[in-house]
């Protein structure tokens, strides 16, 4: 998983590397990126100010998900065809996941015991039972004989929704019985680790036909100014386009460590700062911003990049709108001539709260359709 380390240097498992190179070298010559580059392949602490130095800024306020979806659709054009049955699945998803776990302490320490987890587990079991009944009832009511794809999509949706509920229940079981968690140590007595929440979110996305992939060998390397920057997104959602013979990054997933988030907005902090900077540490925002820049040419939405950051049970969308002329100037170490790019972001959405979850459904189903492209080939052939 992609994590920001708890160490003071904020190192990441998503390797963001920088090595100084001679300006006279050929940026297309990757021979400079051999063993020496691998030895220096480490996280780079790009801060807010450094991101500004290359003309990349952060929007002042969060963007509405509906507005973000409109932006994505305008980039993708009319090439995305959503199966007609998707509108039913959007409705079904809201109906069969009615729960909200508002009072669960996901940061619970092994020394604290509550009964709320037991109640929540029974609540999830009831949701599972109702889901099974719903699937049986729906299959008998809809004439699937005339639409084999709709039947296949319903079965896939049911299985992935059920699996997500299983994952939620297992996390609650660990909170209720710390002995089930093998990672608890004397140094860190928190029961649920950050990586478990990223895994939970990935299970959630599968409801919407999205498929996360480990991308260890998908290293992106580019030259920005006088530095070689490398980015390896450990987890990504890739669009496989047979015509282009390469996988394009649909969504870059970043899992934040607990210490990457500000506990609360500092009272003395500048109220004119962008909303997101009141909640993320400066170095973290710089690193994520640089990752978005690194992936923009490999993105489905090229030259723009879509990302999601995972913060426990909450997620936030990020969208870099990259100026192509600015990107070219950066890679050629030329004067930007005032050209800038902007990172937009959504407010956080908690996938354990029904109200927030419902707002994510439309955009995630659309992204799932973008990734799958041809549903008939994917599910029926």
Please sum up the structure shown:
With 381 residues, the protein is α+β, with helices and mostly antiparallel strands. The protein has helices at 35-39, 48-53, 65-76, 86-96, 116-141, 148-176, 194-205, 282-295, 324-331, 354-372, 375-380; strands spanning 16-20, 56-58, 212-214, 220-224, 227-231, 235-241, 246-255, 305-311, 314-321, 341-345, 349-350.
* Count of DSSP strands: 11
Low-confidence spans = 1-45
- Give the termini separation: 32 Å
Computed structural class: alpha+beta
Shape call:
globular
Largest sheet: 8 strands, mixed
The tally of domains stands at 2
Quote the average pLDDT. Answer: 78
What does the model show?
This protein is α+β, with helices and mostly antiparallel strands and 381 residues long. The protein folds into two domains: 16-80 and 203-380, no CATH class; 86-193. 39% of the residues lie in helices and 16% in strands. It has eleven helices and eleven strands. It has helices at residues 35-39, 48-53, 65-76, 86-96, 116-141, 148-176, 194-205, 282-295, 324-331, 354-372, 375-380, and strands spanning 16-20, 56-58, 212-214, 220-224, 227-231, 235-241, 246-255, 305-311, 314-321, 341-345, 349-350. Strands 2, 3, 6, 7, 8, 9, 10 and 11 form an eight-stranded mixed β-sheet that branches. Helix 8 (282-295) links the parallel strand 7 (246-255) and strand 8. The longest helix is centred in the middle third of the chain and has 29 residues, at 148-176. The two termini are 32 Å apart.
């Amino acid at each position: 998983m992609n994590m920001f380390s708890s160490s003071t240097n904020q190192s990441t498992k998503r390797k963001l590397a920088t090595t100084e190179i001679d300006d006279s070298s050929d940026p297309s010559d990757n021979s400079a990126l051999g063993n020496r580059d691998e030895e220096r392949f480490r996280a780079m602490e790009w801060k807010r100010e450094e991101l500004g130095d290359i003309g990349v800024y952060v929007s002042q306020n969060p963007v509405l998900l509906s507005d973000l979806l409109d932006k994505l659709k305008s980039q993708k054009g009319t090439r995305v065809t959503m199966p007609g049955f998707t509108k039913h699945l959007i409705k079904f998803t809201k109906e069969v996941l009615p729960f909200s776990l508002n009072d669960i302490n996901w940061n619970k320490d092994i020394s604290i015991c509550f009964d709320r987890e037991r109640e929540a587990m029974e609540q999830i079991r009831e949701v599972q039972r109702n889901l099974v009944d719903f699937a049986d009832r729906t299959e008998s009511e809809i004439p699937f004989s005339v639409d084999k794809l709709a039947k296949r999509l319903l079965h896939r949706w049911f299985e992935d929704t059920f699996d997500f509920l299983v994952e939620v229940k297992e996390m609650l079981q660990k909170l209720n019985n710390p002995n089930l968690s093998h990672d608890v140590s004397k140094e860190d007595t928190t029961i649920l680790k950050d990586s478990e929440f990223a895994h939970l979110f990935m299970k959630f996305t599968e409801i919407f036909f999205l498929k996360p992939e480990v991308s260890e060998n998908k290293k992106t390397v580019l030259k920005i100014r006088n530095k070689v920057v490398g980015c390896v997104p450990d987890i990504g959602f890739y669009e496989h386009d047979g015509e282009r013979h390469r996988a394009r990054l649909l969504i870059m997933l970043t899992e934040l460590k607990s210490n990457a988030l500000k506990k609360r907005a500092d009272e003395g902090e500048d109220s004119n700062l962008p909303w997101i900077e009141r909640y993320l540490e400066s170095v973290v925002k710089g690193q994520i911003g640089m990752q978005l820049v690194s992936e923009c040419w490999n993105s489905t939405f090229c030259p723009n990049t879509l990302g999601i950051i995972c913060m426990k049970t909450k997620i936030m969308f990020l969208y870099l709108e990259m100026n192509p002329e600015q990107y070219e100037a950066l890679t050629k170490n030329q004067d930007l001539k005032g050209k800038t790019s902007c990172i937009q972001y959504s407010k956080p959405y908690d996938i354990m709260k029904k109200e927030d979850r419902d707002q994510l459904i439309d955009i995630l189903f659309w992204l799932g359709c973008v990734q799958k492209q041809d549903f008939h080939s994917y599910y029926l052939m």
